[in-house]
Amino acid sequence: MPSAIVLKRRAIDKRYYYRHRRRISVRKSRKWYSLTLEQRQKLAERSRRWFQRLTLKEKLEHSRACVAYTRKKRRSLRRLAIKKLGSRCANPRCMWINKDGSRGCTDRRCLQVDHVFGGGKKEYKKRATIRFYQNVINDLRGRYQCLCANCNWIKRALRKESLFI
Ligand SMILES: [Zn+2]
């Protein structure tokens, strides 16, 4: 049995979906991607007007739902991306020793996605984390690898990507 908060959340989500089902179904369908820029802008304008008409409480509820959705999505995508890259620090000389005595950090909390050939800053600046993780998952050219935080920063220093070290 899920907790009361989860049940409440589900009820809110359901109500939210029911209220905005038309807009959501447009976004989710392929239709959104086949629209021209003007048509998309028109839809965006409509949802902007819809948002303005909400009460303050509803606005808060809506933005909270959006934030929660993004967070959940980002977390699950990060998990998938790290899993795809092997869930282990790719540096053969990684100094981290795991609980079972093997080398190469497997602690998911400090594993990071590294761009093998650099250029991460440029991609990071686009600020679309969800898109970034999707790129990692869909990548077939081996542009990304999994490194622990230490190895990642050491690599950065060696490549003189950082100005401070
Ligand atoms: Zn490492």
The oligomeric status of these chains comes to single chain
Mean pLDDT over the full residue set = 85
Number of separate domains: 2
Shape: elongated
Strand content: 5-15%
Biggest sheet character: 2 strands, antiparallel
Structural class of the helices, strands and pairings? mainly alpha
Q: Over the alpha carbons, how many angstroms does the gyration radius reach?
A: 21 Å
- Taking the alpha carbons of the first and last residues, their distance comes to 52 Å
Hetero ligands: zinc ion
Q: SSE order in H/E notation?
A: HHHHHEHHEH
- Give, in spatial order, the strands making up the sheet with the most strands: 1-2
Structural commentary:
This protein is mainly alpha-helical and 165 residues long. The chain folds into two domains: 4-83, no CATH class; 88-158, no CATH class. It is built from eight helices and two strands, in the order αααααβααβα. The chain has helices at residues 4-19, 21-28, 31-34, 37-53, 56-84, 120-125, 129-138, 149-158; strands at 111-115, 144-148. Helix 5 packs parallel to helix 7 (129-138). Bound molecules: zinc ion.
Notable traits:
165 residues; mainly alpha; 2 domains; two-stranded antiparallel ribbon; 61% helix; 6% strand; binds zinc ion
Chain-wise SSE layout:
Blueprint: H1 4-19, H2 21-28, H3 31-34, H4 37-53, H5 56-84, E1 111-115, H6 120-125, H7 129-138, E2 144-148, H8 149-158
Antiparallel strand pairs: 1-2
Helix pairs in contact: 5-7
Zinc ion (ZN) binds at residues 89, 91, 94, 96, 105, 147-148, 150-151.
